[in-house]
Design a protein that fits this description.
The chain is built from 18 helices and ten strands. By secondary structure, the chain is an alpha/beta fold. The chain has three domains: 231 residues, Rossmann fold (3-Layer(aba) Sandwich); 83 residues, Ubiquitin-like (UB roll); 74 residues, NADH-ubiquinone oxidoreductase 51kDa subunit, iron-sulphur binding domain (de novo design (two linked rop proteins)), CATH 1.20.1440.230. Helix 3 runs antiparallel to helix 4. The two termini are 33 Å apart. Bound molecules: flavin mononucleotide (FMN) and iron/sulfur cluster (SF4). Flavin mononucleotide (FMN) binds next to strand 5 and helix 17.
Length: 405
């Protein structure tokens, strides 16, 4: 898998000029120095203040401020606290976490340890999508190297801080990536999402306060601590700081992971992907994965940041961008999306379990001109308002933005 940095990025944050695969490379390039500094020179709350000041937003889809999340957990007194790295990456069209897992596993281990020190965590988990065999191999190897060299385990770097990380293989369903379902899965139960609140930061794994962050979110931690919050805010837009890994696929000449500023336009991203395949005409792009929204020709200049997409009634989600050409069939793509959600519904709540089969039947009737789009939207809206987790809410945006075309 290839990853490139957009040409406007002189000094990318996540994609560095070297690709880390072994501990020696990582250490030669300053690896684990930040952890050493953190453990010996900083108080936990000073780290949290830096992350808050960076205004880093979670890269797993919901864009929740990371520093605030860490602070919730840090404030609670508890016998145990946990840190979970969410590497389940099941969103269709999203493959950027896989790149980090396979090329920079040590930066992830370093970030999880820094998070644990900051919030008072004593055990960490990396929950990796079951199908990501190579990612699992590389992270497993990196964990062993970290233990063998004193970066994990008892009395890390003789700082008095002890911390362990366990790798868990995902249970093979899209909903396992939903944070509370993931927690149930680690606990050995079937991955059913929990009611929220309480949120995991207050009551998570085994009932203890738990920080759960996406892989890419964590990949930003070491660079922020190393270079400072202001440096990080030089990238991106005012409300969406930093860079983003966009998973670019579809009818483009060069699909792959592209690191660009948050706020890069769709047109710039298309240029970075070397344009449409076979000189076909751009029809639309699906942004934010299967639960995202369609963007059309008149929106090619739309900046891809959290706030601009929200204002436009769409979402950046985890940063998947699927380009469609004049020859691609949007109708069958939409049918696939609905079928995917039906298949992945865990069945715990009625609106999602019963809603998706009905939605598919209605969509087929719509394609045969038997019902109107507004009838479908009524059901999608009820599902959006009443489903227990975001999976049941996911059909509304792709349907709504497709019907508006
Ligand atoms: C159905 C579903 C699947 C999800 N899958 C993932 C996933 O694979 N990876 C991820 O980081 N977040 C996923 N999320 C979002 C998580 O629940 C959670 O918001 C995220 O891990 C928090 O990390 P962040 O604050 O760093 O973004 C999913 C959410 C839903 C509803
Ligand atoms: S919305 Fe769907 S996936 Fe989420 S809890 Fe309900 S049935 Fe399960």
């Amino acid at each position: 898998m290839e990853a490139t940095a957009h040409k406007s990025l002189k000094e990318p944050i996540i994609i560095t000029t070297y690709q880390t695969q072994c501990l020696e490379d990582y250490i030669d390039n300053g690896g684990y120095e930040t952890l050493k500094n953190v453990l010996t020179k900083y108080k936990p709350n000073e780290i949290i203040e830096q992350i808050k000041a960076s205004e880093l937003l979670g890269r797993g889809g919901a864009a929740f401020p990371t520093g605030i999340k860490w602070n919730f957990t840090a404030q609670i007194k508890a016998d145990h606290k946990f840190v979970i790295c969410n590497a389940d990456e099941g969103e269709p069209g999203t493959f950027k976490d896989r790149w980090i897992l396979e090329h920079k596993p040590h930066s992830l281990i370093e970030a999880i340890s820094i998070c644990a020190y900051s919030v008072g965590g004593d055990k960490g988990y990396i929950y990796i999508r079951g199908e990501y065999a190579e990612s699992i191999n590389r992270v497993r190897k990196a964990l062993k190297e970290a233990y063998d060299n004193g970066f994990l385990g008892e009395n890390i770097l003789e700082s008095g801080f002890s911390f362990n990380i366990e790798l868990r293989r995902g249970d093979g369903s899209y909903v396992c990536g939903e944070e509370t379902a993931l927690i149930e899965s680690i606990e050995g139960k079937r991955a059913f999402p929990r009611f929220k609140p309480p949120f995991p930061g207050i009551k998570g794994l085994w009932g203890y306060p738990t920080v759960i962050n996406n892989v890419e979110t964590l990949a930003n931690i070491v660079p922020i601590i190393k270079n400072g919050a202001d440096w990080f805010k030089n990238y991106g837009t005012k409300q969406s700081s930093g860079t983003k890994l966009y998973s670019v696929s579809g009818s483009v000449n060069k699909s792959g992971v592209i690191e660009a500023n948050l706020g890069v336009t769709l047109k710039e991203l298309l240029d970075a992907a070397q344009g449409m395949k076979n000189n076909k005409v751009f029809k639309c792009a699906l942004i934010g994965g299967a639960s995202g929204g369609f963007v059309y020709k008149n929106e090619l200049d739309l900046p891809l940041s959290y706030e601009t997409l929200k204002e436009a009634g769409k979402t950046l989600g985890s940063g998947a961008v699927l380009f469609l050409s004049e020859d691609d069939n949007g109708e069958s793509l939409l049918k696939n999306i609905l079928t995917f959600f039906k298949h992945e519904s865990c069945g715990k709540c009625v609106p999602c379990r019963e809603g998706y089969p009905k939605l598919i039947a209605m969509y087929e009737a719509f394609l045969e001109n038997r019902i109107k789009a507004e009838n479908i939207m009524k059901l999608a809206d009820v599902m959006f308002k009443t489903s227990l987790c975001a999976l049941g809410q996911s059909a509304k945006m792709p349907l709504e933005t497709y019907f508006k075309s």
